[in-house]
Amino acid sequence: MGSPLLLRIASFETKQVRFTCDGRPIAARQGESLLAALLSAGDHLRRHEGNGEPRAGFCLMGACQDCWVWIGPDRRARACTTPVADGLQVSTIPPAPAGFA
Ligand code: FES
Which pTM value belongs to this model? Predict the structure, then answer.
């Protein structure tokens, strides 16, 4: 990950939330979306599954589906419409299909 793509300018008085993304610890603020938190911690959200190019979401409102991430072993979520929560284990890499692990 490179330099953060986003810079927080809102109040820092909300509760701090900690989660991991691809095993990396991330600190965020309660009320932020996963996308905002992850782009505040790095220069992209995920890599395109086809060409490996960095992706950072597009619409930021749940329509384009450019921000899919996985939470835990099998929950797929849009990072732009999913709020952060303590202890989330986020992955930007799809889980292997059953029987292929
Ligand atoms: S950025 Fe478009 S659905 Fe999340």
Answer: 0.87
